[in-house]
Specification:
The complex is a heterodimer of chains A (569) and B (446). With 569 residues, chain A is an alpha+beta fold. Helices cover 21% and strands 35% of the residues of chain A. In chain A, 39% of the residues are buried. The chains are: A alpha+beta (569), B mainly alpha (446). Chain A: InterPro entries: PIG-T (IPR007245).
Chain lengths: 569, 446
């Protein structure tokens, strides 16, 4: 008996040690001074869970957050990508971020190809995520969901990539705040108790010019030979601090996050901080303490230098002090960037224009995805694609799904070849719609949000590019990672349109007035159709007299009759 | 002597009829030039963009979008921009590509065609009306001067033609490329077929109208009454109904791509009946259902649609069974007032039929009021629209007020005409004299 118990304990310990070996967690922070007056801090937390997604259940996890594991198992999810963002990433001056995200909330998911009812699962997923992340994902439904054909290909290993199993939705009005960050930190193995996540201090994060929280879940190869699959979860936080708000260009952990770093996360297999030193050539700065290592990276024709810190299990605070002599630098915008705006005036007819800049010397293939809400009915025959103001471009492929009021958004996906060094304008006209009075939000004149357009492309060079290659899940993996193409998915600005409003205080009046008009027709028509025309003596007596007569008739006649009756009796 | 007189009369009539035809042709030419001139000017797009002209159901922009989507192999009925039937889209496409090759030309030709059909129909109707009252001795003495004169038909038909061609409402509809103009062509074809006693033409035209805009379906009743009363033929009436149903079925079969795809039903009839698109127009529905409480929406949709279609159909058909043409016009009026997406072309069409009732005008009491309301509300509508939508200094209530006035004017007009008709019928029997025992009496409905 005792032997069995010992054996059991032994086996149990053994299996749990296996589990520890199976999960790996890395935490990284990349700090990059941007060209203009900002500094970019990107936290990358990656968890790999060597689990066989086909045969094992997701109930026993070690470092992997269990709520997510349960959700993906229950809802048959292949891949899941979520971002919650405040502010807009300025591609033109900031280059490309590690993770692209649209302002507001964005979610896209691939379901496994044996999913029976994708729409039900999608609805369940958005509801459970709204609980998990305290975001308004419960507003994701058929009326703002599309299944793009080209824009969102699976990022990990998949068996098939038929877009009927893909759902994408964005909530441009979503405001991202502390309540989203707290549950997000709980998904990390060390939560915010130690390690890099302890720097995520909401009082400081939400003072930034841009802050984005994202979650990316996919399946990757567990081994080189790819004979085993693993689940990978990337959690990231991107922050852009403005020097104007900070008051100085010299940054330190204290200034950025409120306090220094209190040691690494003991559960992490690797804890690193990287500081991009490339901008030193234009404005020199000195790092304190001295970095542990300096890494040179050549990637897609771009040379970069990074200072590397291994986070010790004790206190660390990194800071940069700029030299006084200020060199001015010319901004070289990235090869591809875009913006979006509304045209027209009044509240009757308008247009959406997307401007795409190709600064590259060769032509670029791009995919433009527009998920236009149902209250912005667009006319496809007004779609115009003009490059450099005169050259009309025919799209290589055009996918369009007409929208339906209150049910389905307008979905437009265009594959284009942008001419070299060009500005391409894609415009489409829409009408303003008139909604029912109860469909307007409480602040009706604030306007309605139209989500950003997404422009996807494989860039041939990695200029201003910080994104991770598809085969990597950590920032370390992006060093010296030259590939054939570098995927960018540019998000443009959100737009706000103010729809014409009815008078919200009028329902009773309107119902009364309209019904009166209907009654105006009913009365005479009823008379004409049911009554006979007869000739009558004109009543020449005055109104008062007539009323008096009637009065007399009614009351005195009765009395007379009564008295007559009495007499008769 | 009398023979000579009658031949002379006939000659005079022939000459006058020739001169009327010439006049009609001249009017048509002027109307065509006028329409073309405005259509090619910069005002075309301004007019076409007005909500009074282009409703969701009659906007040419939506038709263009629909045929564009068809050409890209996208089913436009997956979305809800298009509210025309597949047959209508096909018809416009064929007309545009193989017959006219020019949008302006297409709309002008159909509009002039409507005018000519109305002219021919009314000419026959008015002639018969005049013949009916030819035996003047049958009628009381004091009615004599109100009875239709010899040249009644010539005059009325020219008035109707003028009333249609130069009526600002139908003119604006035509210039603004409102597809209701083409719908009206089939409506006039229906009237033409009805008056000329052609079962096939009238029932076909009516079936086309009914499949496109649904409401004309109720006109099958006056059509069959017309055949029974004017042509004394029950077979014609029955045939008309049978034909109508057959054409309806055939057109629906075509629309549904031979039973394969009924998605248009929700977009066309669903839209007409349940009013999901609340874009303002000159009708009563838009603001009413914008401001409606959700749990009462269905109740009021049912009651408003019943009010438009069958509420007045039976009583009016019984009351005016002896004058089916009056009944037809009255129903057309009620449809144009109470339909869910009315536009100016509807009003223009029914207004142009008014000269048929010249003999009733002396009995009408509200002509001035109606005229003033129509003038004021027509001129205020675009102004208040601009103030609301573009300068944001007015709100929806202002425009709603104007549409109410529109409806009131039309209601006054139609009830006035119908009341005058009952008075006319009375006076043909009893004379105009309203004295009882030497005292002044009044005619009243009791």
């Amino acid at each position: 008996m005792r032997l069995i118990f010992v054996l059991y304990c032994f086996l149990h310990v053994k299996s749990s040690t296996f589990a520890i070996q199976e999960d790996t967690f890395t935490e990284e922070l990349l700090i990059k001074p941007l060209f203009s007056e900002q500094v970019y801090a990107h936290f990358q937390f990656a968890t790999t869970w060597n689990i066989d997604p086909k045969n094992e259940n997701y109930h026993h996890s070690h470092l992997f957050p269990r709520p997510i594991g349960e959700t993906i198992e229950r809802l048959n999810i292949q891949e899941l990508h979520i971002s919650l963002t405040g502010g807009l990433w300025r591609y033109e001056t900031w280059g490309y971020p590690v993770v692209d995200a649209a302002p507001g909330a964005e979610i896209w998911a691939w379901f496994k190809h044996n999913t029976d009812n994708v729409d039900t699962n999608w609805k369940l997923l958005s509801n459970s995520l709204s609980g998990l992340l305290c975001a308004s994902f419960n507003f994701v439904d058929g009326s703002n969901t599309v299944s793009p054909q080209f824009s969102f290909r699976p990022r990990g290993i998949v068996e098939s990539s038929n877009n009927t199993f893909l759902r994408y939705a964005s909530l441009p009005r979503e405001i991202v705040c502390t309540e989203n960050l707290t549950p997000f930190k709980k998904l990390l193995p060390c939560e915010s108790k130690s390690g890099l996540a302890s720097l995520l201090n909401s009082g400081y994060i939400h003072n930034t010019k841009y802050h984005s929280v994202s979650l990316h879940l996919r399946q990757i190869c567990a081994t080189e030979a790819c004979d085993k699959l693993a689940q990978e979860l990337q959690l990231s936080v991107s922050l852009v601090y403005d020097y104007a708000i900070m008051g100085t260009k010299n940054w330190s952990f204290k200034k950025l996050f409120g306090h220094g770093l209190n040691g690494n996360c003991p559960l992490a297999s690797r804890s690193n901080i990287f500081v991009d030193l490339s901008s030193k050539t234009s404005h020199d700065f000195e790092l304190t303490p001295e970095p542990d290592d300096v890494i040179y990276s050549i990637r897609g024709g771009q040379e970069q230098m990074f200072a590397k810190y291994d986070i010790p299990p004790y206190f660390l605070s990194v800071g940069a002090k700029y030299q006084n002599n200020l060199d001015f630098n010319v901004n070289i915008p990235p090869p591809l960037h875009a913006c979006q705006y509304l045209t027209g005036y009044g509240q009757e007819r308008g247009g959406i224009v997307t401007e795409i800049y190709n600064n590259h010397w060769k032509s670029l293939d791009i995919v433009l995805l527009q998920n236009i809400a149902w209250f912005v009915p667009v006319y496809l025959h007004t779609l115009k694609i003009v490059s450099n103001n005169n050259q009309v471009i025919e799209p290589s492929v055009l996918k369009y799904g007409p929208g339906k009021q209150r049910e389905k958004p307008y979905y437009l996906e265009v594959v284009l070849k942008l001419p070299p060094r060009s500005l391409t304008k894609i415009s489409i006209d829409f009408d303003y719609v008139f909604l029912k009075w109860q469909e307007y939000p409480p602040d009706a004149n604030h306007g309605f949000y139209i989500g950003s357009a997404i422009i996807s492309s494989y860039l041939p060079l990695a200029k201003n590019y910080t994104g991770l290659p598809q085969d990597a899940s950590t920032i370390t993996g992006s060093f010296n990672a030259s590939r054939v193409g570098y995927l960018v998915q540019i998000r443009t600005e959100n737009m706000v349109i103010t729809l014409p409003t009815p008078d919200f205080s009028m329902p009773y009046n309107v119902i009364c007035l309209a019904c009166t008009v209907v009654a105006l027709a009913f009365g005479p028509l009823h008379n004409i159709t049911t009554k006979r025309l007869i000739l009558k003596k004109k009543n020449r007596k005055k109104l008062l007299e007539r009323l008096k007569n009637k009065f007399v008739e009614k009351f005195f006649k009765k009395k007379e009759e009564k008295s007559e009756n009495d007499k008769n009796e | 002597m009398s023979l000579k007189k009658s031949t002379k009369n006939a000659e005079v009539q022939e000459i006058s009829s020739k001169s009327t035809t010439l006049k009609a042709l001249l009017l048509v030419t002027i109307a065509a030039l006028l329409r073309y001139a405005i259509m090619t000017s910069k005002y075309q797009s301004i007019i076409a963009n007005h909500v009074e002209v282009s409703t969701p159901l009659s906007s040419w922009k939506r038709v263009s979008e629909g045929s564009f989507l068809f050409s890209k192999n996208i089913n436009p009925y997956d979305g809800d921009l298009l509210h025309e039937t597949p047959l209508a889209i096909k018809f416009y496409k064929v007309m545009l590509h193989y017959v006219f090759r020019n949008v302006h030309l297409m709309f002008i030709v159909f509009d002039l065609g409507t005018g000519m059909l109305l002219y021919l129909a009314v000419k026959k109707y008015a002639f018969e009306f005049q013949q009916h009252h030819k035996d003047r001795k049958k009628f009381p003495e004091d009615v004599q001067k109100y009875l239709p004169s010899q040249d009644f038909a010539q005059k009325v038909s020219i008035y109707v033609l003028m009333g249609f061609l130069f009526n600002p409402y139908s003119l604006l509809g035509c210039i603004g490329h409102s597809t209701m103009g083409i719908h009206n062509f089939f409506l006039s074809l229906f009237i033409f077929g009805m008056i000329y006693g052609s079962v096939v033409v009238s029932s076909f035209a009516l079936a086309v109208c009914a499949t496109v805009s649904f409401y004309p379906v109720i006109l099958i009743l006056p059509l069959s009454i017309y055949f029974v009363k004017e042509y004394k033929s029950n077979t014609k009436a029955v045939l008309a109904i049978v034909n109508f149903v057959t054409f309806l079925v055939l057109i629906t079969i075509y629309n549904s791509n031979f039973g394969k795809d009924f998605s248009f039903v929700k977009n066309v009839y669903g839209c007409i009946l349940s009013v999901p698109d609340l874009q303002p127009n000159i009708g009563l529905f838009w603001y009413f259902f914008t401001e409606m409480f959700d749990h009462f929406r269905e109740l009021f949709i049912y009651s408003f649609q019943i009010n438009t279609t069958i509420l007045y159909l039976v009583p009016l058909s019984i009351r005016f069974r002896n004058t089916p043409f009056v009944l037809t016009v009255a129903l057309l009026f009620l449809i144009s007032i109470f339909k869910s997406y009315p536009c100016l072309s509807d009003l223009g069409f029914v207004l142009s039929l008014l000269p048929n009732f010249v003999h009733l005008f002396p009995d009408c009491q509200q002509g001035f009021v109606v005229g003033v309301i129509l003038v004021i509300s027509s001129s205020l509508a675009p102004v208040l629209w601009h103030l609301w939508i573009y300068s944001a200094s007015a709100n929806a209530n202002f425009y709603f007020g104007v549409t109410l006035a529109y409806a009131i004017a039309q209601i006054f007009l139609v009830t006035d005409i119908l009341f005058a008709q009952t008075k006319w019928e009375y006076s043909l029997k009893h004379g105009k004299d309203t004295k009882i025992d030497g005292e002044d009496g009044v005619l009243s409905l009791e």
